[in-house]
Amino acid sequence: MNRTGHPLYFDYNASTPVPPRVRAAVLRALEEGFGNPSAAHPYARRARDMVERARIQVARLIGAEPEEIVFTSGGTEASNLALRGVLPGTNGGGLVTTTIEHPATQAPSRALEAAGVQVTRVAPTPDGCVEADHVSAALDAMRTPPVLVSLLLAQNETGVLQPVAEIAALARAHGALLHVDAAQAVGKIPVDVNALGVDLLSLAGHKLYAPKGVGALYVRRGVTIQPLLVGAGHERGLRPGTENVPGIVGLGEACGMALEGLDEEAKRQQGLRDTLEQRLGAAGFVVHGAGASRLPNTTNGRFPGVQGATLATRLCEELAFTTGSACHAGVAKPSDVLTAMGIAAEDAVCAIRLSLGRGTTEEDVERAGELLLRAVSAPRGG
Ligand SMILES: Cc1ncc(COP(=O)(O)O)c(C=O)c1O
């Protein structure tokens, strides 16, 4: 429990709370930005100005130009728009992706494959990192000219950072575009679309202290993609439908906040995460992806022999975190991401993910450590 009697929150990779400043911006948009941004009167102009200000704020956080930002309903839609927008699936084409993607890209890549696109999935090393050499080999081996490479910037379960800049150069050399799912990275670490060399980048509002149901796709100027929906010409025709003005304004404000003190906050969280890992390590906690560069706020690991679900049950009233497995009909199914890293199924079902955020304090880390150690050593059935 924290000071207010609620379970300690260690699940910031799943979603984040909306801070007062973002809430105030959303409320202002609801009150003052209710006009339809596409209309021609002052109420419309007010709403339109709010959307355009947010576009500038989002663009600034990732080093893009405002006109390169397309607002969506979240990370899933952004990645669907990227994959299906580049590869409409009617003319074949080739996609190189990985075995550790979030379902937001995994599912559209499967749908594209079913529609005749050649898809190659590159596996990670045991540390959870996809090697550029392996992507290069996959690009060389494709029957059809590769059109798109798509991978995560930061893996959502392990937090492992992928060598995107290197892979971007390879994609370019093969004449392919690069899409990056940066939903877990934006707002946690500095992300610059030009330094990375990406063509398309997805981000999700609720991972960076904005409300749920809003996100964006960065589309590099000059890159042509097809919309998923047809309708009126909103968002340069790429995402028709009247804009979610309050959500977009919230996303903009959250991006503005993220930019302030990003490096210091990342360092602070990394310090806390490392302390937590040390604490848990004394009780045999094995960190997954320990040898790779990782997000500063994320730890994924296991207490050998203790299922993640068991810990989640023991601590459900005290500590909010995620296990690395889904429970299907009472049987723990190991995470595909962890098994792709070569972790045995019986170890993967022991995985837990703890993700920290702006609200995490030293005291929280201390208490979370105590709770976990107690739960690990509790007698079976306790
Ligand atoms: C890496 C990654 N991509 C995409 C998504 C989906 O984002 P949204 O929930 O906004 O659709 C998530 C959310 O869990 C994620 O972690």
TrEMBL record:
Keyword Cell membrane among UniProt keywords: no
Enzyme class: transferase
Cofactor(s) it depends on: pyridoxal 5'-phosphate
Catalytic activity: (sulfur carrier)-H + L-cysteine = (sulfur carrier)-SH + L-alanine
InterPro entries cross-referenced by the UniProt entry: Aminotrans_V_dom, Aminotrans_V_PyrdxlP_BS, Cysteine_dSase, PyrdxlP-dep_Trfase, PyrdxlP-dep_Trfase_major, PyrdxlP-dep_Trfase_small
EC number assigned by the record: 2.8.1.7
Keywords for this protein: Iron, Iron-sulfur, Metal-binding, Pyridoxal phosphate, Transferase
Annotated GO MF terms: cysteine desulfurase activity; iron-sulfur cluster binding; metal ion binding
Domain Aminotransferase class V: 9-367
First and last residue of the signal peptide: none
Keyword Lipoprotein recorded: no
Family: Belongs to the class-V pyridoxal-phosphate-dependent aminotransferase family. NifS/IscS subfamily.
Task of the protein: Catalyzes the removal of elemental sulfur atoms from cysteine to produce alanine. Seems to participate in the biosynthesis of the nitrogenase metalloclusters by providing the inorganic sulfur required for the Fe-S core formation.
Protein name: cysteine desulfurase
Organism name: Chondromyces crocatus
